Amino acid sequence: MRLARLPRYRGRRGFTLIELLVALTILAMMSLMAWYGLDGVIRSRAQSQSEADRLARMAAALDQLAADARAASDLGTEGVFMLADGLQITRNTTLADGRSETVVARWEVLDGALIRTLLPLSSNAPGAAANAGSANAAAGGNAAPQTLSVDSAGPTIVRLEAMTGVQAFDVRVFAAGRWWSRQDWAQARLENRLPAPLQGLGVKLQLPQGEVQRTLVLAGQ
Description:
This protein is rod-shaped. It is α+β, with helices and mostly antiparallel strands and about 220 residues long. About 35% of the residues lie in helices and about 30% in strands. It has helices spanning about 15-70, 130, 135-140, 180-190; strands at about 80-85, 85-95, 100-110, 115-120, 160-165, 170-175, 180, 200-205, 210-215. A hairpin with a 2-residue loop joins β3 (about 100-110) and β4 (about 115-120). The chain has a five-stranded antiparallel β-sheet with strand order 1-2-3-4-5. It has a four-stranded antiparallel β-sheet with strand order 7-6-8-9. It has a domain at about 50-165.
């Protein structure tokens, strides 16, 4: 009588400790690589958003500067002063109650920021925008014109930080078919031969990222 042979049990072979350690190491390296990649994407997105915000603020500041220059056309180029550290424009503006008022918009760099200061003309000095040029021109166009004087009663002065990170700000004026430097403009004011109308502005901004130049065409001039 022949006995049937029972099949030999073959147990399943498990993972060795070394194989587990290798697998865990590979998994850790892959997780680390994925984290670095995700962190890079987040940083890149944050930098892109920061750059987009900076460009948006610069565009808004230049648009406002162009709006100030366009609004000065009613008063002529006598109200445009090219200062050593910026630009000052005498312009008309419409108040909240619908009344029109003549104000001074001054653009300059203070503490690394491009500042727009808006203040009314002195009520006891009518026509100061047209008569303050001689002192300014005598100083080579660098002295602040007397239009910055205000009533002792204390009028409202609006100061707005238009753009940060600005190291220097320079402006040229385009009028009568040519560009005018600060010195040329001061000399023309001294000789009472300021050209008209104001047709454009050439703006140069010195930023940490480098120099930015823009030409602002004043439509309708």
